[in-house]
Amino acid sequence: MTDAPARWTQATVHPDMWTDPDDDPRNNEGPGPDGELPTLKDVLRDYRLTLLMKCEGLTPEQLARRSVPPSTMSLLGLVRHLAEDERDWRNWITDGEPLPKLYGRRDADFDDAVGEQAMVEAAYADLKREQEATDAVLDAHPDLGERLGRENVAVRELLVHRIEEYARHCGHADLLRECVDGRVGQ
Prior knowledge:
By secondary structure, the protein is an all-alpha fold. It has helices spanning 36-55, 60-63, 75-92, 108-111, 117-139, 155-181, and strands spanning 147-148, 153-154. The chain is 52% helix and 2% strand. Residues 1-39 are annotated as: Disordered.
């Protein structure tokens, strides 16, 4: 016997997928965007949507459910972590004083994520605000080869790193969600 939930999906066309293609907000009919910058932005948008889809429909307690000990990783922790990352990435490309950490000490994004509605709402608000702020800074620099900030980071490098971080954590979110209620990903 196991406490693992049975695998399930709401998809009807492809039962191994998260959702049917017609219902997938990431589904783009036709050719992809032209150019490197629009392509990078489109991929980042899709990974951001994937993270939100993995958290959709869960209670605060389910969002805060930890993975395998000693890890403190949870879906809520991932939302908080990526908000913290967005802020940190802006610190890479600023010439000014770095912004303080959102959640205080190192790893507080995961360690302090608890299943309370107020914390869930704050985490989503933090993520949205930090994404918009980082996007706004980068929108002012459409040249992918331009180097920014004290770290002298190329815009391209930062965009690719953001995609990499979201992609990696969407993989974690797949496993976390399946452990919570058996829902499988795509």
